Records
---
Amino acid sequence: MEMVIRVEKDGGDFCSVQEAVNAVPYGEKARIEVGEGTFREKIFCEKKDIEIVGAGEDRTIIDFDDYANEIMEDGSKRGTFRSYTAFFGGERVSVKNLTIRNSAGDGRVVGQAVAVYADASICEFENVRMVACQDTLFCAPLPYAERSVNGFIGPRVFTERKLTRQYFKGCEIRGDVDFIFGGADAVFDDCTIICNDRVHVRLGDTSASAGSDKAKASGRPINGYLTAGCGLKDGLGFVFRNCKVGGAEGCEPGSVFLGRPWREEARTVFLNCEMDESIAPERFSGWSGIDRDEPNTFYGEFGSRAFDGAPADLSRKNPWVRDIDESLAKELSARADDIVKKVKG
């Protein structure tokens, strides 16, 4: 029998989400219903099978503001993977109808600040708004090796890397630098992906000068990179289907990249998505430079179009970005359907 726990600011079984999570025995299936309001708390959830349901994206908000550059009591920095607002581990998690936000601010000031750390074997997010700046959504697992000492300090630094399967339906994800990242096989259906305007607005610091984050190699402003994958060569990686993709108000044309590879075998494709003029003509960037050759990636698009329905211009895409025809698009979509079936159980 499924446990049902009610969280309310006033009344309910508990007045905080974390208290409700703690009350669930690991092996029990549970549903946590979260009422209206802003819950300022840091969530750690690692259960066998748990569902967390809010009252609506605009009505239930979980917010915290930890950030990577914060100095801990031992003198070390918090780092990316301890900055999350909500960590979801365990076997299966489903999150619906709420907002999860990291309000630490601009990554140029605070470093990475994760809103959602998704690490359960099966993850499902539906009608969830995820809001931050740099590194909004981490789709675990981590890469096998870190590039800097203690770069992976956090909940999974010493654990075996396990492939996770993740499904995002009708979600809104906002950020700027590498803000959907990780090694999961993840499918995004009917989502809205929005890059912040970093060039004209430094979030949390309105005194910043416009154009402070220009790409030196190109001389043009760069607002961000939607994805930074590190998946397995033979995995699915990130698949976006029928999504709306683009920049926030103020983002200049060509200032947003669809992704860059956190590791060289990154895989990300966009199928039948609408994209605005903020998307860069090169489409995807190399890791340490727009024009860097990335032959081991699997990046590409099929059926991309402007919001007015006109086909996207792919004539200037980087040469290592794949040409995806209808046959390959169907194959990739079928593999994505397999992930969705596994998530839906």
---
Amino acid sequence: MPNIIDYIEWRGDLSFENSPINEIDDIIFSRFSYIPFRCIELKDIDTIGDIALKMKDLDIDNYLWNDDKIFLQKIGNCKRFKNIKVSDYIEIFDKAAEKQFAAITLWIQDSKKYISFRGTDSSLVGWKEDLNMGFRKDVPSQKEAVKYLDSIANKYKDNLIVGGHSKGGNLAVYSAVFCKDNVKDRIERVINADGPGFDNSVILTNNYKKMLNRIQTYIPQSSIVGRLLEHEEQYQVVKSVQKGIMQHDIYSWEIEPTKLIRIPTVTNNSEIFNGIVSDWLKNTTPKQRENFINVIYEIIMETQAQKTSDFRVETVKKIAIILNGYRNVSGEDKKEIEQMVKLLLESTFKILKENRNTNKLIEKEKNKNEQKKLIYKGEKSL
């Protein structure tokens, strides 16, 4: 089925004057921030075509996702995207602060800029920062995103679109909610492509409510990442050809000529996952979650792994280190881990039971309706 790369081939010869920016373009721009710009020398203002040329022979191992290389070459060699200017790239990796952040600005039209925030990379620090959202009001990348948005708005006086995929979508929303008021006025829309939500301390703010009608959230039918934490905005369910967690890959999202293909609702599995996580969060305190996540992270760090891909090397040995690390944690920490796992299992059993009961009621009601139809047909035939 066609995806955003097919879209580039279909409509890449059309300028934005001939075919105005649409939601697929928004998704393309949200993905652009994942390109490994650190591997080349960026000028103050390069075009997408310039960047594609510089990265033409770059080894695919430098890309987070294999399709990113194909994606870059496609947009870098078509009329619609190749002449878009790119500026103000920033990338920050701070292991001590548990911060992984990157953003870039695209000059998509006269007097309009798109700020694209990168999501989680393959680093364990990046994943740890994501987990920290489960117990912190804010994380370092969110604060960095606000600073970046305010600085770009101060530097250029154009209207703005802010977007990102995964954690990048979360950063896009957070930055738009907490940027300066005069910057908010210039934001046309905020694109959240399957990014996690927020703690209620964000959701309940007036700033969030003021930005709500400009947030466009897209999630695939079996979304996991995009259902994490709280969302107040209405999300749109898009169709993915993948299954489970792999639907987080936006290259798996199906498209029509100028829009993403919608489906009515998320799958039952997505609802179950969301229910389990929500129930677990409700029954645990932020401090409990912080201790739990930190202890697990410290155990994993004993393997000396820096990236998720490091676990492909000497996997058995790394698992042994993790198990040994668990055995060596203090009795108090071990007790806390076991308690948190117990609460998670309780939430799982509870939600699965509720889901079964709901399905039974639905089936029972369905059977009753079928019986009524049969009775009605019988009476009508007499």
---
Amino acid sequence: MQPDKYIPPYSTTNKIKRLAWSVCWTILARPFPRNMFMSWKRFLLRAFGAKIADTASVYSSATIFMPWNLEMKEYACLGPGVDCYNAAPIVIGKCATVSQRCFLCTASHDITVAAHPQIEKPIIIEDRAWVAAEAFVGPGVTIGEGAVVGARAAVFKNVEPWNVVGGNPAKFIKKRVIKDE
């Protein structure tokens, strides 16, 4: 997902938009617990430029830095307390879940330059992936289809489809196999 027009994350225009968004979300969405008024929360996100499916869920305690850089497909979920620092786009695929208190971080700093300028890279969480509780996903990472990121893992490199990873830094644990019931 690319916004219609790129606005640097710390420009005056962007700061004003983020302030308006923050006030709006705090007053009009945060008071509603859990899944109450989910369509209202989706409406607010769309009003600020998010591309969000009618079946996507965003808990009111989630923090979204720039909703215009968020795309959520059918049945995608941002759980309670998720920190979505999306200075660059974040795409969450169909039936993908980002569990409680995860940190999705699309920005860092270039440590090879004396001024340490900020750099932004998108995060993609593909269909049926699960990012478990309190995991960190860094800039430029793609979590493959059906992959699982274990609780409290720190992911700095792409995760292959249908792999389970965990730890800091995240390492391959096993292949994910779905059993027929």
